[in-house]
Design goal:
mainly alpha, Transferase(Phosphotransferase), domain 1, 50% helix
């Protein structure tokens, strides 16, 4: 998280500019706020809760992650990553069949490599997806998402993370997976790891 509001404001505006250019309106408000045009679509979390989530939405999400991770920020001199792309921070617009990333209030440590940061973005999204679905559809959705992401260089970094951690990170994982029982979480991680092996 940002130690001061000005740092967040600068990152939020730089990220919005990098991802969307002049397609949507955005501006600083004073020294501690940002005003942006509302982007089209409904967040993935809401679509899942309303049983309206589709393969098309997951493919669009994978594609927008791939496109965003290919961007280089001259402002920060690094390949861009989101930091907290949970289901509520990914919108899907069915009319355009396009996804959008929003809310850049969390940033990765710059010391991490681009591949590590990109793998962490994927992990955050996938943990919430697997923990929010109780029908078994999360597997197919994860496959659609990762197939659309289509970056075999990042897959080994993601696969390395697919193990239940210890300590404070485990507490975070419980939140990210909606408190899935550890046995069920390990089972789903094994299935997800097998999926990543087929995508290399």
């Amino acid at each position: 998280m940002f130690p001061n509001v000005r740092g967040w404001q600068a990152w939020e505006l730089a990220s919005f500019r990098l991802l969307y250019g002049d397609s949507y309106r955005y501006e600083a408000v004073g020294r501690d706020a940002v005003l942006t045009e509302r982007l089209p679509g409904t967040d993935i979390r809401t679509l899942l809760a309303q049983d309206r989530l589709t393969d098309a939405a997951l493919r669009a999400a994978g594609q927008v992650f791939r496109e965003a991770h290919a961007l280089h920020s001259n402002y920060w001199e690094l390949d861009w990553s989101h930091g907290d792309p949970h289901l509520g921070n990914v919108l899907y617009d069915s009319e355009q069949q396009r996804a959008f990333l929003i809310d850049f209030e969390t940033r990765h440590e710059f010391a991490l490599s681009a591949n590590e940061r990109h793998a962490d973005d994927l992990l955050t999204f996938l943990l919430k997806l697997m923990g929010s679905d109780h029908t078994g559809r999360w597997q197919g959705w994860s496959q659609r998402f990762l197939e659309a992401y289509d970056n075999p260089v990042v897959m080994p970094y993601l696969r390395k993370r697919l193990t239940v951690p210890f300590g404070l990170e485990r507490v975070l994982w419980h939140t990210r997976t909606n408190h899935l029982p550890v046995f069920e979480l390990r089972t789903r991680l094994m299935l997800l790891k097998a999926l990543t092996e087929t995508l290399c």
